Amino acid sequence: LAIVEAKLNSLLSKEKESSKATPRVGIIMGSDSDLPVMKEAARILDTFGVSNEVRIVSAHRTPELMDSYALSAHKRGIQVIIAGAGGAAHLPGMVAANTPLPVIGVPVRGSTLEGLDSLLSIVQMPRGVPVATVAINNATNAGLLAVRMLGITDADLQARIIQYKEDMKDEVLKKADKLIN
Ligand code: RP5
C-alpha cells in the first residue's frame, strides 16, 4: 500500500509540475503599466481553476520576444492567448499573425484619447487574422471568454460557467427586487 501511495503521490506531483510548466492560458501585455487592468483576467482564470501565466511582452520594445512567444505558445501547450495593450496597441494583432491559437485582445485605456486609440488599433484587423476584441479595459470579459472557449471541450469547466451565469442572474434579480419593493 505504501508503494502504491508513493507512486500516486509522485504522479500527482508530476501532474502539478507539468500543469505549472504548461499553463492553458497566456496573458501578455505591452507594459507593466497595463498590469492593473490585465490582472483581472488572471483573477477570473484563477477563480475558475484555469492555469495561466502572466508576461510582459512588448511589440515595440521587445519584438523578438513577442515573436518567439507567439510562435512557440501552442507548442508549449498554451490554448488561448489574452493580449492587452494601450496606445498604438499592436501586440494582439502581431501575436495573432504568428500563432494558430485564438487571441483575445484587451484595449487598455492610456492617459489620452480615452482608450479609443487602443480599441481601434486592436479591433481593425485585416481579413484572415482575427483578434476577439473585448471592451476598453474589460480584462474580466477576456478571462471569461477564454474560460468559455476552453469549456467547449471541458465539461467541468462548462458546468462552472453555467453556474457563474446562474449566480449572476440571481444577483441581478435580487438587486432589482430590492429596488422595486
Ligand atoms: C503600450 O504602450 C503598452 O501596452 C502600454 O499600454 C502603453 C504605454 O506603456 P508605458 O509607456 O506605460 O510603458 O505598449
UniProtKB/TrEMBL annotation:
GO CC terms in record: chloroplast
GO molecular function: ATP binding; metal ion binding; phosphoribosylaminoimidazole carboxylase activity
A Gene Ontology BP annotation from the UniProt entry: 'de novo' IMP biosynthetic process
Keyword Nucleotide-binding attached: yes
Key words of the record: ATP-binding, Decarboxylase, Lyase, Nucleotide-binding, Purine biosynthesis
Protein family membership: In the C-terminal section; belongs to the AIR carboxylase family. Class I subfamily.
Name of this protein: phosphoribosylaminoimidazole carboxylase
Organism per entry: Macleaya cordata
Full-sequence range covered: 447 to 627 of 636
